[in-house]
Amino acid sequence: MVGVSVLGISGSVGSSTVKVLRQFRDQFSLRSFSVHSNWEIAKSLVLEFSPEVICITDPKLVGQFGDSFGSTKILYGDENLSELVKLPNVAVVVTAVVGARGVLPTIAAIEAGKKIAIANKETLVTFGPLINQLVAKHKTLMVPVDSEHNALFQLIERETRSNIRAITLTASGGSFRTLPIEALEHVSVKQALNHPTWSMGPKITVDSAGLINKGLEVIEAHFLFGFSFDEIEVVIHPQSLTHGIIETLDGACLQYTSHPDMVYPIAHSLFYPNPTPQMLIERKPSTWKTLEFFPPDTKRYPGLDLAFQAGRAGGVAPCIYNAANEEAVALFLEEKISFTTIPRLIESALNQITNVFPETLEGYLEKDKETRNYIQKEFKKGGVTT
Ligand code: MG
Questions:
Q1: How far is the CA of 58 from the centre of ligand 1 (A)?
Q2: Is 121 annotated as ligand-binding?
Q3: What total of structural domains would you count in the chain?
Q4: Where does the record place the 1-deoxy-D-xylulose 5-phosphate reductoisomerase N-terminal domain (predicted)?
Q5: Whole-angstrom distance, CA of residue 307 vs CA of residue 313
């Protein structure tokens, strides 16, 4: 039995992980998990899997449900996420919490020698150089769960590294791929949340609509696989069937294609280095019909170019990109700014905040905070926000 800890179990990656755990009950046991505020889900999963410890992270709910439920211990707050991953009989940690708050439990898991199924892209984007140092020091096995990176991980592993000329991440193009560009200024939150192919949480769905999710993924790919920003490409692929492509020196392109369901990369990351032992969903290539690929339109998706700029600048620029985006998306979801203001705020933060190259976590956290304050200040001033 392989012990599993899932941080953020009620989200979309978390619930797909539960599906995989149910399918392989004889091989994995859920030892700990966190939810932000969804007690109903937490309760039913405790009854089903009897984990040792769970954590509820919403600060408004501290103490609300006592300190145990049956034989399961209940902890509260982000600061206790690290306790979940350190349990001696946890071997794999799935980090599926959203945002830069995933970093501390990820570091705790690395230091405790666990295998990491990383589904929290913000941790790598924001703290990439630091996480990579720790991964190297502790010889951590880190398997990406993000569908594109998991596909690329599997392709890269099968090819000689020096024979790979470039890697390509596919993007569905999000909710507004075919909307006239002039109309983007006035789209509603509800429209942005209507993703054509993937069913995901609100933050990542908004990120996808502006290709900022892809921007974050480009930076994530850089830190995961060590390719330079000139060797990473993005292609719009509306069907979301091909998730990653590697181009070899001779010009051939190898694609990883599967039905768009997160159970594939999650099962792969749980079983790795062993193969997933059985078919998860039966979808034959003959049912796919069309696979289309287009270059991304930079006018429609200005946030993608900003990610390449931030990635090339290095230092805390990716951290600024991520923090500015998290704040701006929250403002958009509260209907306080327009959709097109999101990349404008990110650009402004990248231009105004001084880039540095910190050696400690605190250095990154400081810039993360400075960026968030900057965005709130800009919003109140009404400068770039109208
Ligand atoms: Mg993805």
A1: 26
A2: yes
A3: 3
A4: 4-128
A5: 10
